Amino acid sequence: MSSFQQPTLINQAVGTAVAVNLNNISVTNSFSIQMTRLFVVQHLDRETPGLFEDLAQQHGMSVHVIRVDLGEPLPSLVKGDGLLVLGGPMGVGDLHNPAFPWLEDEVLLIQQALEHQIPFVGVCLGAQLLAHACGGGVEPLLGGDPPRPLAEVGWAPITSTLEAGNQSVIRSLIQPLDVLHWHGDRIILPKNANVLASSVRCREQLFRIGPLAYGLQFHLEVEDEDVFRWIAEDNDFICAALGDNAADILRDQQQLYSSSSRPRRLKLLSDLFSELWPSQF
């Protein structure tokens, strides 16, 4: 695990910068950055930023994907950047697993991003790491009768039970929205988290910590080709959740829900981004 270094104040011609270094990780508050950079932490080849990347680029953000599984270093962040951490089959329980040495550094980077008010979005594993970084955790998701560990896999609706108020993200979810689920754990949220949307099986689907950090246990970003690849490469996981005909079930669901839900999924993504980067949207 990398050693933590205390923040260092640096005076520069462009303004006062606050740098927090963690070996190759740093967070800097600088006034010289013009274009919003979105750094995407990707954990394996099949889980890509998908619609997140498309939307960010459409709104003038520069997207930089970091493949930590291939040894690429975590980024140096400056004020005005954004951080998106994607999913993966590893979990919070693997934080000390030598096979995934970058997980601990990701937690530290998330903590520093929050401290320096850098917008953050965590998807699936990324949402779990966000909760852990803020004092929460994870536990197996239970289902069945009698209850047993049982993953939530496939398309199912999420709904907000909160009053919409002025927050567009919540207004987007007053009516149920079909999204893809692909997880075996549920998040134990820290005390400072607010649940914004839930599914029937899992309460902690969409949550916010502070004004600039969102966790999504579900997947808004996936396109058909992504899901078909997940089905092919994650057969044991899906069969444990849905039975031996899991692949057929998921392909049928994809045909039924993917295209019909896409406009509203894009709307929720846009609302989420506009909350975090209002100047871009």
Automatic annotation (TrEMBL):
SUPFAM superfamilies: Class I glutamine amidotransferase-like. PANTHER family: GLUTAMINE AMIDOTRANSFERASE YLR126C-RELATED (PTHR42695). PROSITE patterns: GATASE_TYPE_1. It holds the Pfam family GATase. Residues 59-223 form the Glutamine amidotransferase domain. GO terms for molecular function: transferase activity. This is Glutamine amidotransferase class-I. Gene3D superfamilies: 3.40.50.880. GO terms for cellular component: cytosol. Keywords: Glutamine amidotransferase, Transferase.
